[in-house]
Amino acid sequence: MNTQTRPSLWKYFILCLTKNYCSFSGTAPRREFWGFYLFLYLFSLVFGIAGAVFFAMSLPWGELAGVHDQAQIQAMFAPHITSFILAVQIIMMAFYLPIWGVTIRRLRDAGFSTAWGYGYIALGIIGLLNWAVMDRFHYEGGPVTQFLGIISSACWLLLIILACFPSRPAVEDTPE
Fold it and tell me: In terms of residue numbers, what domain contains 54?
């Protein structure tokens, strides 16, 4: 493909958020996959830093200065942390479908089963449920949480490796 006609990484990012927002069919070349993830992580970094600054500005620093009890400090932080996490999750919900779509299309383009991508989606849902249960019942964590973290990290690493494979050649329709 000629480099003049090939879309830029930014155009692939915009394409994933517009035309291919919820597209799980077809294929995604490496350039589309990595362009989407590059700008997604750059925006996540910028908005994460901005969110941390706003979070720090919203804390009652005057009240915190005189408090030495850990339980009181946690009680003062809890509403701020909860609202910050909720805001991040609401914003990220807009990106979940494009993330899954470009991942599934990239795996298909590289010639791998899309079950790898759906397995990663299932792991994400299990991790979310694990976090919700831990938060609801004030569970401190333990071997199950560590195991899920290791499995999730290993699956993400495997998906990155699979996404690095080149596109498989198009199969020509041959008459029988």
Answer: 9-163
Secondary structure, 3-state, 84-120? HHHHHHHHHHHHHHHHHHHHHHHHHHCCCCCHHHHHH
Half-sphere exposure of 101 (CA within 13 A, CB side): 20
Structure tokens at 24: 């799980």
Domain membership flag for residue 83? yes
Q: Is the pLDDT of residue 113 over 90?
A: no
Among candidate residues 175, 89, 75, 94, the one with its CA nearest the CA of residue 131 = 89
Domain count, the chain: 1
Residue 110's identity, in one-letter code, is A
Local structure of residue 66 (DSSP, 8 states): T
* pLDDT digits 0-9 by tens, 54-97: 888 877 777 777 778 878 877 777 777 777 777 877 888 889 88
Higher pLDDT, 149 or 42: 42
